[in-house]
Automatic annotation (TrEMBL):
Sorted UniProt keywords: FAD, Flavoprotein, Oxidoreductase
TM ranges: none
Listed InterPro entries: Acyl-CoA_DH_CS, Acyl-CoA_Oxase/DH_mid-dom, Acyl-CoA_Oxase/DH_mid-dom_sf, AcylCo_DH-like_C, AcylCo_DH/oxidase_C, AcylCoA_DH/ox_N, AcylCoA_DH/ox_N_sf, AcylCoA_DH/oxidase_NM_dom_sf
Acyl-CoA dehydrogenase/oxidase N-terminal domain mapped to chain residues: 6-117
Domain Acyl-CoA oxidase/dehydrogenase middle span(s) in chain numbering: 122-212
Protein's name in the database: Acyl-CoA dehydrogenase
Top-level taxon: Bacteria
Amino acid sequence: MNLALTDTQQALREEFRSFVQTELLPYANDYDKQGFIPMELIQKLGARGYLGATLPEAYGGRNMDQVSYGLLNEEIGSACSSTRSLITVHSSLTAETILRWGTREQKDKWLPLLATGASLAAFGLSEPDAGSDTAGIKTTYQVTADGYTLNGVKKWITFAQTAHLFVIVAQGEQGITAFLVERDTPGLTVKPLEGILGTRASMLGEIHLDDCHIPAENLFGRKGWGLQQIVNTALDNGRYSVACGSLGIARACLEDSIRYAKNRRSFGQLLKDHQLIKQKIANMVTEVKAASLLCRNAGYLRDKKDPDSIIQTSLAKYHASRMANNIAAEAVQLHGALGCHDSISIQRYFRDAKVMEIIEGSTEIQQILIADHSIAGLSTIL
């Protein structure tokens, strides 16, 4: 197995880095402080094709392979996890899932809009009393003569404040089912959520559904198959995006720490010459390299549509998110008081990294998945 980047993938990485350096990194701290991403940036993401990165060209997408898509998430994640969160929920959770399970009419209607960013999408799964316990959702649907009626509350929904289209997962007589719900649906309201620890510009919202009538053609997937079809596909896609984004956070912490160690003097010498600092940097480099290989391997298997890609994606998300937390903490420690101040990005990376362990399946959920899979057949993991 050759995990080296192709010439095309390397060229895309350089493209992504150039965009991040000029359009994102200089402003990311400001976005975090103001609590939103400006529409101007979202339009630039759409114009570059980054919001439809993996969608076929027939729908206006860039038809990127999964390894390239991972590089996009890594590079954007290295500058702004809130912006990477938009890529995750809009592209991985929603657009890719519509591509997989949507009807021809749903694809033709929504994918061209999502590919360009003309419409933004969000994924409504979590609720006030249901996060990792996806089977415990309380939002309900009832069958009507010409469609469905939805009632309930969705919480912690990334970019709910700006999304035009929501995937809403609800419980009914025929089991858990998913629906495509447009923002202007009567009875749908969004309440902004503030005070989040990290990814503060990801424009979280609480979605209230009060007797929302959904036309029959907006059923998403089969009735009763909301978890098996829609949620599992979306979360698998999202875990890959988050894994690569976590890698980006860790790499940024490492690079900032090395730059700081080369210039900061302490006890008569540069930090880089202190043995304990060398130890920290060596550990960071090792962990970043290991996470990079796990992410690259997951992308490689996803491109092959190998069934093993699902558990390998969980492994990548599990390791990369935990690793990002550890490295961000070490980076704060290395920077001292400066690392705790919002004049630099380290404190933001530290806060964002913790969120990565919670979203798209918590660390504990990944542990259960990996352990169960390993017990069932160790050879498929190794």
